[in-house]
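The aim of this short unit is practical: by the end, you should be able to scan a pair of folded records and say something sensible about each. We start with the first protein, listed as its amino acid sequence and then its structure tokens.
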Amino acid sequence: MVVCPSGCRVIKNRWVFDVKPNGRKRACLVAKGFSQVEGKDFDQIFSPVVQFETVRLILALAALEGWFLSGLDVRNAYLYGELEEEIYMEQPEGFHARGKERHVLRLRCALYGLKQAGLAWWRALKKSMEELGFINLDSDAGLFKCFDEASKTFIIAVVYVDDTIFLGPSKAAVEIMKKRFMERWESRDLGELKEFLHMHIGRAGQSIYIDQAQYLQAVLQQCGMVNAKAVPTPLPVGYAPVKSLDKAADPELRKKYQTVIGSLLYLMLGTRPDISFAVTKMAQFAANPTEDHLSHALYICCYLVGTPNYRLKYDGVSGQGLNACTDSDWASDVNTRRSTSGFFIKLAGGLISWTTKAQKTVALSSTEAEYMALS
């Protein structure tokens, strides 16, 4: 707590209150980072996180190789990140120091809401992992690996902000490394992995299953589609959305549409490749949607009502290696005449990666479109 320097910008804050699913009440002090000025209060803000594809790849390998999985959650992770910038903040409401009401707080460590909070935590985490003997991959910065000399085996750590998975062939080595990590950071031990990034992870024998059934129910409830009539396909057969001719959509319509599409995108990226084409196609109209676009975005929800328990399975007994498939249509987009590419990659009999996207240029034949998809 210091006297505010002359000419210094002071950031405000607010309390955010929440009730967790287990009934526990939580209060969090959040800085109003939107008032920060680039070049003065922050410079770089990008913080790497592990990709969904990497998580599924690791789970498929764990099924094939019989690896042990264990999870933990770092408590108040952002508060550990040390700030490089000189930032001052008002005293929190309800906690003004008597006789020092005009003083401000000089932030030495990050606070939730600051634009560079995620990056500051990432730097602290990476330094800590290197001290434990881990190095992170260039291809995915959220994946760390370490060779344990005592057990003569390796340990892998998958990190997404404050959620972490430790896994490897040796349960004892994994538990020892996990304990060493928890000695450095105050963490909640989740034991054998059951959930990660809103994905439920189940294990039966040598098979691993992942789904987002609980998150899906929350999405359907938010969209008011819990009791909707189920349909057999994500979009009606032959439906081709047409872009709006109006210059600007109704703000309320756009907000509702983007909320629905955003929730569906998270499902698609996590465990639902079956809605990949439909969600990607409808997401192209998020900037200027119409009532027709909204009704068909909710049509995808109707499909999900009838398929709430779909899940991905990685069968360790199968011993199946990588299997990749790709295809393309031709000039299907009535607005641009661009073709749509699609591919998926399987490991252990389950999908680990998939993509549906419009091609960057117009193909002059179906053969050309398929070559573009293959490349």
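Turning to the second protein, read its sequence before its tokens, just as you did above.
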Amino acid sequence: MDEVFVNSIFYFVVKKIRIPYYDYFPSYGALVRMKRFGKNGKIIVVYKLRTMHPFAEYLQLYIYKKNKLAVGGKFKNDFRITSMGRFFRKFWLDELPMIYNVVKGDMKLFGVRPLSKQYFSLYPKEFQEIRLKYKPGLIPPYYCDMPKTFDEIIESEKRYFEKYDKNPFTTDFKYFFKSMFNIILKKARSK
């Protein structure tokens, strides 16, 4: 419901609205297991290095309702990110464990990002259905055209899918190298 600082300690004010959800496999350590939507709506477990405080996943709806989205589609003023997490994100160190997801076959090297239930719910219903037809990727089309707003991100993903449907291998090849060019030479980053 709210958050407050008391003697330099950050507290949440919460209200019980249902029976508590019990996570049988919580991630407390440096390696985080996150449930995400994969191809055909299959729930996959994505691995990342921790960049947020424990239990941050359960605050997504609160963060969105309170702050909405920033430029680039990330949550605005996201207090869940730790200072070490900001460093990891800047150099994409948090993404390295997802290479396991690529090797395992749940993801591919290039494609739209696998999304949490909360973030996925922000997409229009008809585009949710389209998105679930494809295997998610480690490097998203975002880095080719660097959209600013959430609507522009959706349009970017739609363009990628249209091109992918016509020629999958060539599309991923071109998008991958354009993304690498933007990331390495133009210093493109998601915010």
